[in-house]
Each structure stands twice: as C-alpha cells, then as structure tokens.
Fold these 2 entries.
Entry 1:
Amino acid sequence: MEFEIEKVLPNGLGRVGTIKTAHGEIKTPAFMAVGTNGYVRFIAPAELRDLGAQAMLSNGYHLRRKAPEIAETGGLAEWSGWHGPTITDSGGFQVMSLGSGLGKVVSMEKERHVTNTAHKERLAHVSEDGVSFIDPFDGQPDFIGPEESMQIQCQIGADIHMAFDELTSLADTYEYNIEAVERTERWAERSLREHIKYRDDLGYRQNLYGVLQGGRWEDLRRQTAQHLGAMQVDGVEFDGFGLGGAFLKEDLGEILRWCNEELPMNKPRHLLGLSHPDDILIGAEMGADTFDCVAPMREARHGKIYTRTGNINLRKYSDAGEPLDHDCDCATCQAGWTRGSLRALWRSGDMEKKAKYYNLASIHNLRFIVRLTEEIREAMLGGYFEDYKHNFLAKYYATS
RNA sequence: GCUGGAAUCGUCUAGUGGCAAUGACAAGAGACUGUAAAUCUCUCGGCUUCGGCCUUCGUAGGUUCGAGUCCUACUUCCAGCA
C-alpha cells in the first residue's frame, strides 16, 4: 500500500494525500462508510459509490463466522459487491461496547455522568490472551485475541486491518489506562506477527494499522505513538495507524496532536469512530487522514437530518414542504424529496416505506459527511482551510 | 315503541368502591460517534413555592367516609324484536 502526501497544512499535521490499495485509491481526508456486516445498512453498493464514498469499513468481529466463505469468494471487496477499498475493525471496539460500556451510549459530552458496567454484568472480559465474551446474538461463549482477530481479518481480506486493541471508557482511571495501553501494545506486536503470515493469502497485499490508545493522558498517548510508530516484527512495520479511544470533544484536537506529532509522517492515520463535523474538521486539521462512523446512518434512521445550517429533527411538521437541505447535492435531495414526504415514509407503519426512508435519509446524511471531507480536501489544497472550517462551523452550529 | 348493551385524556383501550385513572397509537422534547441501536429516554387534564392544590370518566341527581366503578332519571349510540 502506498501513501502519497500532496500537501501539508502550516501546522505540520493536517495533510492531503492518496492511499493506494489493491482495490483502488482513497483521496484523503476521506470518510469511510460503516458496513459492519459487509454492507452499509439500507444503502446499495452502487448508491455508495454514487454518493462519493471511497471505502467501506466492516467488522471482523461481526463477520468472524463468515470469514472462510468471504475468503473463498476472493475477499470482502468481491463478497460484498462493493469492489472498492475496504477496511476492517479488529473487534477491539466490542471489548468496550460489550464489556465496560455494555448498554451505554458512547458519548463525548462532558456533563454525562460516566460509569463502567459492573464486571460481573459484562458480556466481555479482558485477559492478557485476549477477550472472552458472550455472543449477544446467540448467547454462546467465544474468544478473540490478537491472533484470532488477524486470522479472521486476513480471511475477510480487507485492504486495511486494525490491530486488536482494547478501547477503554471515559470512566477508566489513569492506572487502568496504563495497563490497557501496555496490553494493547503487546497485542499490537502479536497482531503484526500474525498478520504478516497471512497478509498475501488472497493474492493481494493486505495492510495492518497499529491502534493507539492511552485515553486522555499525554504521556500515554505520546509513548504509545512512539512505540507503535517504531514497532517492527521481522523488519516489518505497521502500514498505518488507528487513532482510538473514547474522547471528550474538548480534548480531541489536543490528543490527536500528541499522537500525530510522534507518529511517522509518511503513513496514513485513521481516526476511529468519529464523524460529527466538528470532530472531522479538528481531526483532519490535526493529521487524521481517514474517518469512519455509524452516526450518519444511525442518526438518519432516528430522524436526524444533517443540514448546512444545523441538524433537523424530522418529526417536526412545520417545515414539511422544505427540502432536506437547501444546499445539498445528494441523490435524495436532487430527486426532490421534501422533509414532509420523507417524514410520511418514516412514520408510516409500512415496513417497505420505512426501509425506503432509511435508504433516502442514510444517503443524505452520508453524502453530507462525505462532501464535508471532499471540501476539506479542496480547502487544504487551496490554502483556505482555516476559513473553510470557520465558516462551516459558524453556519452549522449557529442554531445550537 | 320494547328488550339488551355501550358512553373514560386527539384516537382506540384498561379499570366493577380508595383513581388524575391502564396500555397502545398519535403528538411533543431529547439522545445517539471503530452498530447488542429501523433504537433508547422523558413529557403527554390544569396550576404549582414540587409538598401539593384544582377540575376530570355522556348529563343531572342519589347511596357511601369515599363513586369512573353501585342506584335513579335523562341524552346519545349499537344490536335484536316490533
């Protein structure tokens, strides 16, 4: 995999580049649509291409039982029908979402009182070897460690894989984060060692990103960035890096700066799991190249429609005749769907109509975020990123 | 006209002596960030100094410490018989 940097921001961190994978190029900064199970919910591959998505992120954890079948068809790109660049998560997020964060919302709001789920109630438990968990779908016990995750991901065969990591929650202490980040580094080395055994098995080169944790502590973040940035197994390094963790909004930029000041400049960085415009803007500014997140699609399904002047709740009747967003080039808006017409589909009891709504709304929100990254790229290349960011945020957050 | 049955929050509905009164839908507000999420939370008679207060179950009386619940009359609706 090659990564070419075309331009760097004056701050020395943010940049414009191109990631070249076996299944195509990704012009960065870029947002990757999340298709956890190998498809983006309610969006067909062709629609995904049409709205400008350049890559799709799936999850090794969710696809683990299908991995052999996916390998047989030649890998995720073929199996999914997407055919473009793909990336898989290791299952590390589920360590938290089924473990300490079970039943909780992953929030970036400071005011929210955060507590960890009691140990005995968790579906996932961390040990040095890996993570034992109860599959929430069938109740069966299972286990994934770095080796298992790599074996699964190499069978799925995405262009980019994530090292198996432990995501801590906002409620975890400094002491626990030391433990977790050190374990994540040991897992990273085991991941790399296992990955290089299988990375060419499907006939094209699969790549591995090391994932940085360390919570909100500068020493942990800088150290792990140095460690992972320099890590080698048999002379092989990571192909890029995942920037992971649960963040408070106000800390995000600073944490990314700590990480990216230490990481090698010439390798791509993926900011895991964030997509609200302010997060993408600060992420790109601080040197993240790619992003993924479920929010655009999930929030669309839940009736939140993104617009340039702030998000709207589709439940409201008052603006039924309005387009979703006056300034949107997505297929849904271009087809002339109004807020009222979409609302009628959404609120109808008819499953087919609801599915149509989920499709139209997901396309709109996803296009909104993809377009944001396209515009960030243009703004960086054009030398007006600061102005673009300021103007975008001023309009977008004016009402909230 | 007779005989049954029924009238409860926008709608449907629970309730047969302690009730501002069940549930669902609708409505309103909020949440959601590497998807246990086509989900979840809150409000939903009025007022409130959040302790309560007031007005409510077709209408009007009555029995009772207490009535949406029991009794009487009336009104309307439904069914059957004329």
Entry 2:
Amino acid sequence: MPARLFYENGDGAGRTMATIKDVAKAAGVSVTTVSATINDSAPVSASLRARVNAAIAAVGYVPNPVARNLRLGRSRQVGLIVPDISAPYAAGLARSMQMALSDKGYAMFLASNGGDPARELADIARMNDHQAAGLVMVPAGLGARYAVRLAETIECPSVIIDRVIEGAPFDCVADDNALGARLIARHLLQLGHRDIAVIAGRTGDSVSDERLEGLRAPLSDAERPILEALICRDHPREDQALRATQDLMSRREPPTAIVTIDTVQTRGVLQGLKSMGLKAPDDVSLISFDGLHFSAGFDPEITSLDQDIPAIAEAAAEMLIGRLEAGAAGREKPPRLLRLPSRLIVRASCRRPG
Amino acid sequence: MPARLFYENGDGAGRTMATIKDVAKAAGVSVTTVSATINDSAPVSASLRARVNAAIAAVGYVPNPVARNLRLGRSRQVGLIVPDISAPYAAGLARSMQMALSDKGYAMFLASNGGDPARELADIARMNDHQAAGLVMVPAGLGARYAVRLAETIECPSVIIDRVIEGAPFDCVADDNALGARLIARHLLQLGHRDIAVIAGRTGDSVSDERLEGLRAPLSDAERPILEALICRDHPREDQALRATQDLMSRREPPTAIVTIDTVQTRGVLQGLKSMGLKAPDDVSLISFDGLHFSAGFDPEITSLDQDIPAIAEAAAEMLIGRLEAGAAGREKPPRLLRLPSRLIVRASCRRPG
DNA sequence: ACAGTAAATTAGAACGTTTTATTGGTCGCC
DNA sequence: GGCGACCAATAAAACGTTCTAATTTACTGT
C-alpha cells in the first residue's frame, strides 16, 4: 500500500480554509467589522475587537492575499531580475534581498535571464502578469535605447541595481565606482607601482566606464602620466582578458600590477597567468574590483574592492517598499540615485614591485 | 525639473487595464464566450472566436491572473526554498529551475533561510499565504520528527530535492549516491590507493549517510578491509574537516587519498592542507562528491563527482507540474523517488600513490 | 412541418476580500 | 422632549475571473 498523501483531502471533504465570513459568523459580527479590526481601517469598539480576535484565533483564520490583491489592485510580491543567479554577486544579492523583503512581509519572485536582454524583457512582462508590485533588477542590456525599452516595458515602481541608467525614471543603487577607483589607485601607488595595467569591460557599460575613468585621474597624478598602452578597453569576456594578460606579460617591460574592472576579467587574468606559468603576487600584483568570492580558499587570495552586498540589497528594498507603501504619492517623487562605498580588502595578491 | 516617472499615471487618469468585460463589449458577445475562447473550456463557433480574438488584440487585453487565481483557488506560482541561495548548488538549481518553470508559464518564488529549520517552516507558511501552487525545496532540517513537521506545514504538492525524507508524502529527486560512491571507489582503487580516508557530514543526514555507506562495500572488496580509523563521521562543519585533515596527515601512515562527502568538507580539507603546507595531488589525492565549482580556476582543479543540476531541476519541475496539472487526481498518486546519476569528472587532484 | 435533441451562447452566481453608503443608536443642545 | 450630529456597526457593491445552469439557435428524423 502506497503512502497516503497528506494533502489528498485538500479540496475534498477535508478541512477547508477559513474565510473572513467564518470569522464573522463565529464572532457574531459582520464581515465589515472583521475587516476593520484586521486593518484598523475603521473604529471598532474594544469589546467587539476582542470577540473578533478570539474568533480569528478559534477558526484559525489567515487572510487570503489573492482576494485582497484583487480588491486592492496590488500585491505584496516583488520581482528580482538578474542576468545570472548562479553568479556570486547575484546570488548574494538574492539572498539579502529575500531576507530584507520577507522581513517586511513581501515575497520575492526570481528571474534569471542569462544576460539576454530579450529574455529580460520577457521576464519583466511575466512579472507584470503575475502582478508584482515592484521590481528590482540588475539590467542585462546597455545603452540609451535599451533604457527606453525598459521604461516602456516596466509597469511598476522599480529599482535598478549596479548599473546606472541615464535619465530613466528608476531609482538606482550602485557602487561608488569613483571612490573605489581612488582607493585602488592609492593602494597601488603607495606600494610603489608605476606601470599599472587596467583590463576593462565593455565600453558603454556604465560600471566599467566609471571605474576606468575613476582610475585615470589618480594614476595620472603620479610622477608620470598613466600609460595608455597598458589600458585594455572593451574586454568583456574572460578569454579576452586571458589574451590581454598574455600580451601584457610578454612585453619588454611588463606592468608590475594589473587592475581588473570586474570578476570576469579577474578570472581571465588568473587563467592567463596560469597559462604562462606566472603567479600573483610574485610575478605581477593583481587587484580586482568586486572580488569578494576570490577569497574563499583561493590561492592566492585576491586583494579586492568588496561591495557590501547586504547593504545594497537592504537599501534597494527600502527604496522600493518606500515607494510602494506611499501609494500614488510615492510615484510622484523624482528618482533617486544612491551610491554605496566599497571597501578595499587587502589580501595576498599585491606586493611591492621589483 | 525632475525627470517624470512614466508610471505616475498608473492609477490616475491614465490608461487603465482592459478587462474581459471590455473585450466582450468590443466583440459584442458575453464574457462567458470570451472566457471560453481563451481557455477552450467550451465550444465556440469559428466566427465568434475570430471576433473575440480581434477584440482582444484591439483593446490589448491580458488576463488578470489574480482574479483567475481567486476563482480557481490555485495559482501558477511555485516556491523554491533552499538553505542558502548563495551556495553554488542552490544557485545553479535556482537558475535551472526558474528556466524550466518559466517555460511552462509558471513564476518562481525564492526563499533562502540560512539553513535554519524554523525559518524554513516560516518560509513555507509565507508561500502558502501567497498561494504558491507547489513547492520545491532542499530541506534544512533532518530526521523523522522534522519530516513530520514539514508534512504538517506544507499544504501543496511538493518536491524534495537532494535529501530523501523517509515515508514523507513528497516526491523526491536525489543524487544516486550509491552509484557515485562506487564510481569514486573504483577510481581510487584503480589508481592504486589503499589507505583511503573519508570525511563525512552529519550522521543522520541522508546524503552523507548514503554516500559513506556506499563507499564501504566497494572499498572493502579490495585486498584489505576499509580502515575504520580513517573514516571521520559527523564532521558537518568546515573547521571540523580542517582539523580532521590535520590529524589524518599527521599520522605515522597518512592516507594516500581523501574522499570528501560534500563541498563543505572539501573546503575544509583544502584549508587543512594549506595550513600544513601540503598540496593535492602531490602529498595526498583528493576527490570530492559534488565538487563542480572547484573547477573554475582552482589550483588544483578538484577531481569530483558532479551532479547534473539542470537535469535535477528539470525533473523536479516536471514532477511538480505534472501533479499540479493533474489536479485532484494527481494528488492521489503515490510519491515518487527519482535518483539521477552523477558523473565522475577526472581533474587534477588525484594521482597514483607513492 | 413539427417535435425533439444537440450545439452554441448567455445570464448570473461564486471566489474572499475592501470599501462605500446606509442604518441604528446615543448623545448633546436648545 | 424633540432634532440634528456624531459614532459603531452593517449590508451590499465591487475587483476580474470561471463555471453552472438556463436559454436560445440550429438541425435531424419522421
């Protein structure tokens, strides 16, 4: 005899969910009174309030959020859309975001689109369909045209994370890339590095552009100007960073330090060094924006600028829910841009040159 | 002047969502006919069907899933509950699961509870509240008592992943741990290892127990019986595995190979070896269940038994949706247990002993 | 041509809430 | 003591669907 499924009576003769009507009957009041008691939406005398609460406990009533959503026209569900949930950044974000949201009584949808802008737009549409009250997203696409499509597709208050989309009507939470660049530059200069290479991501990607631009000034403040020849632009893929590393390290005068703009590039550099039998920090120093997860048991552990992902998630959740709870009023306010600082964590991949 | 928010007219004078009623009016038919057209729930003549479809396109109608859910008493949302979404296993699962579900028109809630059973039960309750139609979960708790609490709390068809919960009324998708153990044992024996250590997780954790038990027989088939002294039971934490490694490698006759039962233990062993200045595979061979993500740019890349996470996710999604779509009938069927094979991927952390 | 039946269409109830408008009751005030 | 003014409580409508039961239309067989 097979095990019996406990929920087999879910819609049969078994216990059925208690409704607000049952509570009203049990308490001997109207459903309006019950609703008013639950939501404090109208004055209820103390005696009735007590009766109602007792009845709620007695019948084990829990409000049906679907019915409430239908009536109210909004839900307590927000969607998180990321390019790749299996990337450590997105995974950490999802984790913190979910906790922040559930603390406030919201559930979180998740969509992971593989970095494909078309799929991302589909994800947004699906979340609209499922009546997400708000969206938090790390956008997959770039550029002004994509921003327009985003704004057209999104129908609810939204917070954009990581990337700054110019002029779009969204709140943003992003890394303070300029500050981070200064920290990195200072660290390398203090160690005595002068020939510093930078491997950047796609041109037009606000994160990569801001970080690269942020490095330029402080590095040029040093005794000699930044060496343009050591800057590798538009290397968004890991294999490109690998190739670039091989090129850089084959030069007559190789750089003494490499700055990677993102984890993808960092991985590429590590592969590139390995392919040449080189190693940080012995042969070259390596420092990475966003390298938190290269510290686990990595050898060497990479000195990097680590974002405070829980703080980002909490800030985004707060911004979003602030707008949601404010109702129509909250939507009128102009979009906000919040920059959160990263911290430079010195690990083992940098040392004095020479 | 601040940027204007495109959605500021969301509930004001702006465009309002078209309802099925609008479609009916536009097509000159009843709402029943429109509904029948959309759902194929009743025969509709070709001519009316055409009129209705035209009207739907004209007014830009999209069904309101909240209203539908209310009426139907079920939703097209399923919840995924994992101990820690930032763990690679869970992240990969979430990614594949979300894709599998969205292909079938379902949205996915995500909850990550930090491995705390109490929070997990709360997550389940919240998903119940939000009317999740089904649940997929990697349970945080262990043991029969916890299984009972799970069964009491869960109100919808559910699939348990990874861990096998005895006698509980849930479908399960799990790794074929016995097969995996045989593969690992064979690999090590073929290389010539005889003194093989095993570092296992919590006793009572079905995954750990099955894997350890699975190793026993094939290792004892070899010329000498398995060395009980080299088996470290109940080492669920990373620091315990670290300590165990130090102990093992300090023995007069240290093992020539270490098998780790899970990624946590693997990390611990790597730390332990590093702390002693040892390295795999030079000083000891290392092989891990579940080590996929130690291959990225790891040095050495760890030979491991890799689960096919997309296959697991797809199987679970299919099982769950199968039950959901079958309605009441689907709930009567006895729970299924599906074991999926892992593949042994030979990387660089094992070699012949001596 | 007419009853009888099958097929196509529709009106209306129901799902579980929130909210608007209304009732009934208590009080103060002249 | 009667009249409006407030307060607590309620009945009923509304949200956007689906589905049951009733109605209309079309068609078949004699």
